[in-house]
Design brief:
CATH architecture of the largest domain: 3-Layer(aba) Sandwich
Distance between the termini: 54 Å
Strand order of the largest sheet: 2-1-3-13-6
Mean pLDDT: 92
Low-confidence stretches: 1-21
Number of helices: 19
Helix content: 40-55%
CATH class of the largest domain: Alpha Beta
Structural class: alpha/beta
CATH superfamily of the largest domain: Periplasmic binding protein-like II
Radius of gyration: 22 Å
Number of strands: 14
Length: about 425
Amino acid sequence: MKYTKTILASAATLFLTPGLALSAELEFFFPVGVNAPAVETIQELTDAWAANNPQHNVKAVYAGNYVETTTKALTAANAGKPPHVAVLLAIDIFTLVDEDVVIPITDVANTAEDQAWLDGFMPGFMRDATLDGEIYGVPFQRSTPVLYYNKDAFREAGLDPDTPPATWDEMIEMGKKLTKKDANGNVTQWGTRIPTLGLGGAWLYGGLVISNGGQLSADNGIDVAIDTPEALGALEFLQKLSAEGVMAPGGISWGDTPKAFVEGNAASIWTSTGNLAFVNDNAEFDWGVGFLPGGKGPGAPVGGGNFYIFKGTSPEEQAAALDFIKFMTAPENAAKWSIATGYVAPRADTWETPVMQEYAARLPQALVARDQIEFANREFATYQRGRVTQFLVEALEAAVGGEADAATALAEAQKSADRVLKAYK
């Protein structure tokens, strides 16, 4: 599209760092975690930066999902061949610092102009980019989960299509009216669908806990609060949704949840705002987006990925990597990325661009995740994240699958997490 070429060309000139005459060979790892044309958009942006920086070469490497990308980046770094720059989960900050494979961004971005640029990112997204007073990550493909709901289904059930549920009680009350069965008693449309399996389930569960007045992990990456009344109440609510016939019993997967929504199998779902483009392109019904319904009030976890610059790279490569990051997060390019995927543009100046304002006017659902940031908190993240998060995942899956009592499952997860994290205290 003509405006896209104009945006890319103009944005390329915004953040060119003086003194980048020396050439650099950059390898850029990135993941895809949503149903959106992310690979194509990343490649277009990467090519635009390369075209305006012919002294450098950059190779964008799609490395799989978030977990696969982190594993590949760590393997390469430990083998002495790190990527120069990568988009990895914000919550990977503890692992990356513990493995000593990334540098503080401020080691490279150390001018007053650089600080002004860093100050332009939303505080809600910078909280999990910082550790021990150092900034290690630059927000890029950031998200919160939101409630997607079928307005046509609401109308058919006699509900106000402009008033989605705001509380857990309303989710159950409305969900009963939205659940449909055929003549044989088989459910053809569930009232809601909240993924409960794997890392996606743990992410959404964290939002339930936040809205219930709790927080699963502390900013230090060491202290966890899994065995608490707030966490137990959140897990019991997930069980209640199924017990009341509003949500399918047993575990619910992350990956096919957006598809279930657009195919009419669920009247509402919880999933990432990063699936906004997929729903917009595929839903053949009137649909809306709302805050996640809360227990004691609104609440959600932030999620998604940040840019990191790796150790073991030359000063010239690090300077080029920083310039690349500035380009990718420039207002017009961040707008292109947000529009293509549904991720929340993490800078206020992006939302002020004409193209983003036009997009928001055309698709106001995109504003919900941005506005929900006020009530969001960091997601569950610790040192030894893979091991510790697995304890939480197993507790959730056992409880929703009917294999364990909720309180017992959470208590066991707490003990296991404390045992692993004891070495960091």
